[in-house]
Hints:
about 0% strand; rod-shaped
Amino acid sequence: MSLRILAFILALMPATSRAQGLQTMLLLPDSVHLARSSASVQIRPYVASAYLLDAALNSLNSLSSLVKKENYRNRVTAFNNPASADMGFSLEAELQASLRPILEKTRSTNTDKFSGVLSSIINGGRTPGTAGPAGGIFPAIISLVGDLAVREKRVERADVDSFLQVMGRYFAQYEKLQTANNRFEEQVARLNGRLQELHFDIREYTIDLVTLVHRGPARAGLRGKTIEELLLLYLDVPVLDSIGAAAGPALPAYPTDGVKGAKDISSTLQKLFGEYQKIYKDNYTEIRAILSGGRSLGKSINATQLETSLRELDELYQESGKADVLNLRVQTLQERLRALVTAEGAARAGGR
């Protein structure tokens, strides 16, 4: 990784004492930091583990924030608003146009009032207790038009069938969007659950190292601290150097499964990042296909508005994708893991 890229990353970090420590760490290879340790080679795997845990926690926090992607998700949700024309058509305009032949046959119905009621249903958006526009608005409109047909003898079944056939094509777009968004939200919820599980694993791994190196703190008491606090209080480099120098040969050997645990954390994080990318890519592809499918609705489609919406969706997805790679720092995590493997191997060789 070039110094220019490192400098750019450092510019994004808060100017706290912890960040300043990380700046020193990031500007030099891991092997240099470990070699500078004043303690014996036996403490270096613990130091390398602390570096790795710090990178893993930063990456996990970044991924948790990326999953929210508020701008993208808000835009996708907005497409499913029946009062909007972002899909290339105005649902209210199409509804009123399709309803006009029926209203022209009525005698006892106040047509202006009836049209106003339908407009209120659409502009009111989703009705309480429904999954979305297609789940709440369409049945309500069907009910109103059906009641109208019963009262007005001149309105025939063929008139109602024609109305439902035309409007069903428009409502189908909303139903597809709602299905895609529901699936998307379920996938994101599952991903968030796995991120929480990984956070628990990182915490347990950190506590394992702390209880091994520090004989004093009880495990139950450590669970009341954040991972950041544990790293700063018990696994900061000066603290570990001091312990290594004082303990000498009596320092507990680095656990035999320590590297495996670190690899599991790193591997899980990368898998979750890959899953996150797939969830958003699949959703983007599906939403784009649904919007593009609106062209088949015919001349009533506003092609300019539809193209604008597609372009906005593309830009949001591409911009967020570029930010993801920068924020997650997966490469940094891999460098920390390699440094840990090297330090653990040297400690094992030195203990023979």
